[in-house]
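Researcher: We're reviewing a set of sequences before deciding which ones to prioritize for further study. For each one, I'd like a predicted 3D structure that I can look through quickly. This is threonine--tRNA ligase. If possible, include the structure in token form so it fits the rest of the review sheet.
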Amino acid sequence: MLIRRNGFLSRNHQARAHKLLRLSLLGHTNTKQGTEENHDPTSQQIPTEGMFILQKMAASSLSFSLLLPKPPPPLLPFSLRRCHKHLRPSELFTATRNVGGARCSSSTASVATEPAIAAPQEAQKEDSTERIVLPTNDSSEKLLRIRHTCAHVMAMAVQKLYPEAKVTIGPWIDNGFYYDFDMEPLTDKDLKRVKKEMDRIISRNLPLVREEVTREEAKKRIMAVNEPYKMEILDSIPQDPITIYHIGEEWWDLCAGPHVETTGNINRKAIELESVAGAYWRGDEKRAMLQRIYGTAWENEEQLMAYLHFKEEAKRRDHRRIGQDLDLFSIQDEAGGGLVFWHPKGAIVRHIIEDTWKKIHINRGYDMLYTPHVAKADLWKISGHLDFYKENMFDQMDIEDEKYQLRPMNCPYHILVYKRKLHSYRDFPIRVAELGTVYRYELSGSLHGLFRVRGFTQDDAHIFCLEDQIKDEIRGVLDLTEEILLQFGFSRYEVNLSTRPEKAVGDDEIWEKATCALKDALDDKGWSYQVDEGGGAFYGPKIDLKIEDALGRKWQCSTIQVNLTLPLLFFAHVDFNLPQRFDITYVDADQERKRPIMIHRAVLGSLERFFGVLIEHYAGDFPLWLSPVQVRVLPVTDTQLEYCNNVARELKRNGIRAEVWHGERLPKLIRNAEKQKTPLMAVVGAKEVEMQTVTVRSRFSGELGTLEVDSFISRIKDACENRTSL
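Model: Here's the predicted structure for threonine--tRNA ligase, in token form for your review sheet.
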């Protein structure tokens, strides 16, 4: 539910959020108007297409909205409600779509040709809705002040309840706030006590008063209350005077602000304490382990409920859970953390991703490479990795009195391929690409499913070109990036152009040319973007592209950069540094040796991370063309098993991923197929064997009727080719 392992939600919010989420999936949910006491069961209700929607905001990195719609149509038939929970992400979070037009079958599947049940006509109408957009710290100073003050209120509450607790720091963060304490470990029950004390402090409407004191006075006060961490913080503050914020006359903290005027400006029903975790003081594992309490705070209760629903939906889509449920991948303790095992179904999806990626690259003039996973350590010294990146590299190994190193990046290998012969200016551009596996050392505590691993495969490519070819090549990378991402259902991006930082390599002229080339390519493409002045890497300007998933979260997978030195993880950049380090050249029209421009780029970032994003984007409900199993053939009884096997063989012969499941009653076979998120089920009974047909059930469209096998195959092929469902 909404309870974290080391956190809690209030009893009212637990019950309410659980009821809203459960009933919204059934298509009939009451919302509350006003406070808990004013709940009216006849008040506005949530429509069948879901309780909340996500909405993109120009000024924020993540936004989502709570629907307050008109009353919905009558409760849908049970079979339709069953299918509702299988809506695709675009349907679940878009207010103008609903399940009214879908044809969903009943749960009694004893007859393969059972007719579909249509939704009531009213359910097909769009609801007019009032959108409550969740603000961010950047878009709402009021929210930022609320969150910052909540951190102080929480610290005050903790020290009231646990006088021995020592305070450290308590900032606002993206979705709320936290505070670190030096104290005994806390439990869920402790957090509930803290929240109740916070509520009491808020209800007292205590003023927050800013005071300026001298450094000596601040030291005197800190020593009086015996707060050693605050003394260390004070020593790190360079400027005078020192500012202190008081909550009433009972508690104070070193702080620069800002805060709300009084605690009464905080809506206590819009606050939840989420979890408690361990955190080292100053992030140093050699220092004290502190207790960090995380909380979330919003301007009103509706925003909190929208956020909690978003969290629950994100939890439902967690790629680690889905990966286990669908048997897609695993990380085996016996092998070590951060090392991914792709299971057969996950490997099929990876194969499709790789095959799509390769076809597009070959069509756009790239040559494919395969290079070693290990090389002499001297190679990484030449590239600069041992100087700048050593902490992220695995230890070297001794082989016949020489040092070898697992590769953390692919760039030096591609340069060696370029250097194998002398090139003429007529050869450019030269484009090479590789799905190259790299290895990077990560602390075990930082590993996270497929998103943070120690071994992963980058979709790496390098373009060697002339200065006057930069713009066209960058534009080509933009087009390629768009083509690949659209294939996988990502059409919304956030684009940023980062320019020269204060410390950089390369002369001003080449930086200016590279930056202008990136700008011109973006303008030519017609993409809107924001400029991050001085935000580029020291080796070159870059374009960062973040894709937006079904929940409105943004993931960085692609960057395009004109790199003047060392490459990063996700990028496409122009590099002036590595060509110099490896002394690569070409012969120009005047028979002189010149140094080429080198563009680094990765579209997906890594296959592992991108697969994790895909899983969460689709919540494991992969589209038909991408699903590891496209059709599951189900016999009504085992007497139809031979025919089912023949159907499956014919499907496979036509390139359709199919399997036969039997040995259970048909309703259970169907339920199991639904749990495995299989897009299509071909049900076979005695009548289907006699007529040489199958009765098709679609996970997204319900009953499709009885089809001849050839017709079924043709429709699947057409749907896959057009990237549509059946």
